[in-house]
Amino acid sequence: MTTQTAHESAPFWDRLARRYARQKIGNLPAYEKTLAQTRAYLKPTDNVLELGAGTSSTAVLLAPDVARYTASDISSEMVLIGQEKLAQSGLENLRIVQGALGDTALGDGPFDAILAFNLLHLVPDAPSDISRAFAMLKPGGMFISKTVCLTGRYALLRPVIGALHLMGKAPSVAYLSPQSVARMMTDAGFQIVEANNPSGAQTGHFIAARKP
Ligand SMILES: C[S@@+](CC[C@H](N)C(=O)[O-])C[C@H]1O[C@@H](n2cnc3c(N)ncnc32)[C@H](O)[C@@H]1O
Questions:
Q1: What letter does residue 196 receive in the DSSP assignment?
Q2: Structural domain harbouring 126
Q3: C-alpha span between 22 and 91 (Å, rounded)
Q4: Mapping DSSP to helix (H, G, I), strand (E, B) and coil, where does residue 124 land?
Q5: Pocket of ligand 1, candidates 19, 73, 76, 172: which has the most ligand atoms within 8 Å of its Cβ, to mutate?
Q6: What is the per-residue pLDDT for 156?
Q7: How many whole angstroms separate alpha carbon 25 and alpha carbon 2?
Q8: 208 exposure class (CB count in 10 Å sphere: 0-12, 13-18, 19+)
Q9: Taking the model in full, what pTM does it have?
Q10: End-to-end CA distance of the chain
């Protein structure tokens, strides 16, 4: 058995980055709902860390709501596109860095909120990342995530994704369920504050969890 490291999939995301940046948001109402749900937990004084921020489109939208915002991603190409957006935005409280949890580039925190959108199904060891996030949050801090859960009828997609992964056309995906994500949160010590599917589908499961 091989142990995957957080950075192993970076070349895949590097190759995808420019195409990812050009793609339109698949379900705009669900995306806007997630933004509103997330904003409800953010305060103007907050120090926020986003993990797997991709091209930092969400970071550029949320940074004006908080004091300091660090957007991070393992892909240097995603980070480069984010930095291009940052230069155009004029935002002074947004920092975009390359890295994963455990890397010094992300800073030590403590953070008021850590965000992970469409990420937890892609990391090699989600329970370990969730525990690291817990350690980097202030007491009362929020871990806010939206996770692709290929359960129910979406489980039919698993063989297709597996085949695409073997061809190098899809990342390695962990098949999580809303329940398994919630369990990982509570196992790490979080209290679940809110859990639902803004898209009405299991594929985008939103969880807001608080560090007691
Ligand atoms: C599906 S994209 C999501 C991007 C963005 N959060 C969004 O919702 O549009 C996943 C992103 O996570 C990054 N990524 C993958 N594994 C990671 C890891 N272990 N730590 C940090 N980022 C990771 C990829 O480079 C990619 O930009």
A1: E
A2: 10-210
A3: 22
A4: coil
A5: 73
A6: 84
A7: 34
A8: buried
A9: 0.96
A10: 36
